[in-house]
Amino acid sequence: MASPAKRVVSPQHAQFWANLPALHVVDVETTGLDAGDRIISVGFVKVLRGKTLDTWSSLVNPRGKFISRGAEEVHGLVDSDLTDAPTFDSLRDSIGRWLQPDVIFVGHNLGFDFSMLRREFEASGSPLTTLTGLDTMTLAAAAGIAAGRISLSELLERLGLANSAEHTAVGDALATAQAVIALLGLLVDQGRTSIDDLTFTTDSVLVRELSEQEVQELLPDTPEHHASHSQPMMLPEQRQEALDYCLSVGCTILQRRMQDALAGPEDARWVVAWAIKSLTEGIDASRAEDRLSREVAGRLLAGIGRAVPRARDSQYARDTYKKLMPAFAHYGACADTLVAGERCDCCQRGTSLCRLLRVRRNLAHAYIHVKYYDDSPARNAKRKKAEVSSAEDELTRAAKFLPITSPKEKGGRGGSRVGFFHELVKLGDLDAAGYGAAQVARIRRQRKGLEWSRKTLEVAWDRGCRNLMLTDELTALISIGAGAGRERTRTPEEALADLTLARAHLQAAEESNPGVWEGKTRREVLTRRSTSLDTRIAKLEARITMKVENGADDQPAPEPASKGAGVRNPRPARRLLLGQMRPVRVEQNAEEAAFAAEASQAEYG
User: Fold this and answer.
1) Model confidence pLDDT, tens digit, residues 337-385
2) How many helices (H) and strands (E) does the chain have?
3) If 172 and its partner were Cys, which of 24, 27, 93, 318 is the partner (CB 3.0–4.6 Å)?
4) What residues pair up with 163 in beta bridges, in sequence order?
5) What are the distances in angstroms from CA 257 to CA 74, 129, 268?
6) 10 Å Cβ neighbour count for 555?
């Protein structure tokens, strides 16, 4: 009887994995994303020599910390699921066995998982030792798949992988393990023999603790205020009384209290109507003491931003934006006011985007991404939260926001070519328009390819949208020459033109967003990309000069002679090409090969 066929592993791959210690991949689910939230599920997967060998997972009782509504919608766990689960203290030794200094600790957005684990260990009286960490987002950038942040689901899609148990700790850990194996294989194919420069020590991961001010903000300031937070909010009169009281005393967590009332679509519409009425009355008040401060208005708008998506109606998000236009005109963004002390709480702390900008992005996001959730008691046995498909396809809603003919459609389709994007641009809200365009470009990139995505971003850029999110997406596509099959056919002159254009876009965006908080990570990514572009441009200019001096005639790399020629696995390779990962292999002379290696190192080294 013939033995089953074995997978052929190249000597380079075998040597690479032989020199690599065990990888312990982790994922955690939590009660929420705030500094005071707790772990409620943890999963580990062991990877050795390119194979997954072992898994371990457990639910965790957060000891009285309730799961936020937003977190429940993501992972499907509810408080009753954790009643009989062990506490973290009782699981500490089992978890600790996976966190040893002789392995590499791996995760997707590892900083979040590790910061949660370190906080739990410190709370239990056993601080963690220093570990070696490896983030799949760093691997994705090094392999040429994505620049900057990328979700796990999007990463898996680009790799041609699937997650059979999305948003469960062990399911995400297994999916991350498969992604790590694929990414390391790509890096070996690119000539890497070590990943030491891609790892980091966990001492460099900052764990944000609640400040004394934030702790006080989370607690109602008086017994009466505390009692109002304990009142039910099922009926309209109950919601009216509770929210009116919080507004009157300047509740510092008003937006969270508004979220407590979001039991369904009708409740969400009620909360939005109440908030808009409160904003209108605060703006029109004749007495100064009755007018709403920018900080309180920001919290009301934050509550609206959380409520509108729960209404589950794309057109409702657009209508809400129109109703809020007087408030947007009255308050503006905090960066635009010169009044001392007149800032929303986010701008006062300088730790997140201005609330008066964020709500506009939230409304654009709600217009594009409409998700329907089953709120009935009958929930899926495993997930406890069954997501029902939207009545409209994402591509249809993307077209309603920013209608652009697909490059594959000859002549396009009829109908209106004006969407919500054009309305936002006409109103002067370029930030929300650019944010929405970036979301639309991501949808089109995932569904229809890179060329349509780039065309979407270029239209938004030409209309004056310069926020850093759109710039991040656009310059990443330009720098790799995305679209029209140019990944394999660009001449050095064409590549130089693209890189120069990407650098000019980065400079223009930086000049247009000097005081806007966009997150440290995104700014760092764009700074590294700018430095990388400078290096690549200098090398290309030197190469072109040398070609002119030598009278050489550089030609684009030839197409493969036949389907699959030079490709280890033609079908996955096609997925990789669409996902901006590894180009199809072609025969190269020594000069071309050296340049390709230098360009790769300049971009991702």
Assistant:
1) 655 557 888 887 776 778 888 899 999 988 988 754 434 344 333 334 3
2) 27, 8
3) 27
4) none
5) 20, 39, 12
6) 9
Nearest-5° angle of CA 220, CA 225, CA 230?
A: 90
**Residue that has been written with the tokens 């590790």 in this structure:** 114
Per the domain annotation, does 99 fall within a domain?
Answer: yes
Rounded CA separation 402/398 (Å): 6
Over the stretch 190-229, which tens digit does the pLDDT of each residue have? 888 888 888 877 765 544 444 445 445 555 557 777 777 7
How far is it, in rounded angstroms, from Cα 445 to Cα 454? 8
Q: Any idea what the CATH number is for the domain that residue 31 is in? A: 3.30.420.10
Host domain of residue 29: 11-204
Q: Do 419 and 396 contact (CB within 8 A), yes or no?
A: no
At CA 14, angle to CA 10 and CA 18, rounded to 5? 170
Instruction: State whether 155 and 28 are in the same domain.
Output: yes
337 and 256 co-located in one domain: yes
* Alpha-helix residue ranges (DSSP H) falling in 308-354: 314-323, 325-331, 345-349
Exposed, middle or buried, 427 (CB in 10 Å: 0-12/13-18/19+)? Answer: middle
How many distinct structural domains can be found in the chain? Answer: 4
